[in-house]
Fold this protein.
Amino acid sequence: MLDLLWLVPALPFVGFLVLAIFGPRLPRRAVALIGPGAILVSAIVSLIVAGSFLGSPPVGNAYTQNLWTWIDVGGFQPHIALYLDSLSLVMMVVVTCVSFLIHWYSTEFMAEDKGYSRFFAYMNLFVASMIVLLLGDNLLLLYLGWEGVGLCSYLLIGFWYTDPANGRAARKAFYVTRVGDTAMSLGLFLLFTHLGTLDIQGLMQRAQAQWPAGSTMATAAALLLLGGAVGKSAQLPLQVWLPDAMAGPTPTSALIHAATMVTAGVYLIARTHVLYTLSPTGQLAVAVVGTTTLLVAGFSAMTQHDIKRVLAYSTVSQIGYMFLALGVGAWGAAIFHFMTHAFFKALLFLGAGMVIESLHHEHDIFKMGGLRKELPVTFWTFLIAGCSLAGLPLITAGFYSKGLIIWSTRVAEHGSAALWLLAVIGVLLTSIYTFRLIFLVFFGEAKTHVAKKPGWAMQTPCVILAILSIIGGYVNTPEGLGNVHIFSNFMEKALPATVEAHAAAMGELASESIVTLAFIIGLAIAYYLFLARRESAEALTRPAISRALHRFWFSDWGMDWLYDKLFVQPILWFARVNKSDVIDAFYGVLAYFARTFWRVMQATETGRVRWYAAGIVAGSVIFLALVLFL
Amino acid sequence: MFALGTIGLLVRRNLLFILMSLEVMLNAAGLAFVVAGSRWAQPDGQVVFIFILAMAATEVSVGLALVLQLYHHYRTLDVDAVSRMKG
């Protein structure tokens, strides 16, 4: 059954073509059937493929489906080939299933929208590109999917294009990720010129054979690919686009900017993990980027007013955890957290969508409140997802995945006590901002009237995701709490196992208990500030220093301001200085000469035939004289 | 004779006289060919003269047609009056 694999990306693509060509002429019911239907079939096929992969694992735990040769020129021969191993399998199943649930939700969420078929066409194209990215056998095909998802992200952020602000947000996302993509394409050129292939498995083998550990080339390649990953996954210093990307429709934010696309960077690093094991500098860079991002974004998330921006910063912060896990060499833990994060973050966004929809498109959390009784399903699913995000011990999936990452940062080969401590502080921040959000939105007194209650097409996917956000964690539990290792064992078929170099430093349970403690402290702070004693939160922001700090965090640590001063202003200045265009002056002079000459010659055109005849006679006399006498 | 024709072409204003001067020039060229042919005992000079004659006939027919049209239009044969093509 593995040969059905090609259907997984093909079906959404067919869905996209049908919707893009016939969409505007189809009735809404048909669009609602084709868009999510294509994804549903694709998800079922991917589950069948997963079943047969687990039932009878192919040779070497990897299956390659070679469809055709894409280009064949001078030894450069990328194939259109799909590569399935346990890493891409997990990603593929999660992406198709979460995509289907979000498509289902969108059939109701977007029901009133004019661009109904356009929305589903973009979403289908996104899923197709994402699957190509995940299953691509060579880096060129991966890059095709990579740019495809970037394009869909741009199209969907600017989906409501009549508002210029949305267009600006879309362009910002496009430009900022372009910076990362440039680094990544340079990395691809470097790998091809030095190793002579872009086929991922061949590349990894050749890298291991040709480059000694710690070689400059491996470091350069690792850092360039990290640049691409940082852009796509919204990590420091390129995280500025993600909060603005919330201008798109909420299901888009759930699917693209939380669950799937932004984790492409994590996938890329995990896929090319050999380069990072060869280069300790590269791997350290990944860990440092992850740690700083998770803290910076955590502080920013605490100060935001817009419900979607809080979630956006939280996404940035959680991907920071994944990068941290990759950086310390806990490859499986990163993918585990990707999976649980896809469930609970998609759910949080869908819940936020329901809240926003029911309150006349109100985004400000300080104008919400008391929604617990009005929207019970939303409340409970949102609470489960929030607990999973913050890591409510024992029950939720987020606890297990994040606990594994944090413990790994201490015991893994490249782990250290400092990274571990920063990661625990991250848990504290996560807990504070998550419960701040929940308390402000669902508790307290109602401030805005609920206009519209979500229907079953929006609630069912949320309930399914809520169940997944709980049971998703039970596939891998720490020692002493069941000691299940299904997930990490499965991951170790594709990725190296975590080397527990400092296993003596800290037990897994001890780490988990400290994480739990951080979670409880965060919960208590949020409870005190935002539910029990609202006035104390206001008192806290009154002193000048804390107001300045609040403003600083609110503006994402001044990153936008910095980029404006560093890049945008100099370019604008140069444009102003060079308004008359120096290069153009040369051509201006040429045109001036031509025009002057034309004016002089124009005077000779008198319209008198006899003058012309005289000119001919004079010319021939002069010419004859020249011939005869010279 | 050629120079005479050229001067006539330049100084005359009447289009009819200009055409006549042109004929004079053509005949001058034809005479030169014939004289050269008899001087070097070659038949080519006379052959070319017949060509020139044929060409002159067509040129005159076209030219006279133009003169008629011009006269219809401007009621004059003065070429300097016809300077609408001035740039």
About this structure: The CA atoms of residues 435 and 526 of chain A lie 6 Å apart. Chain A has 27 helices and two strands.
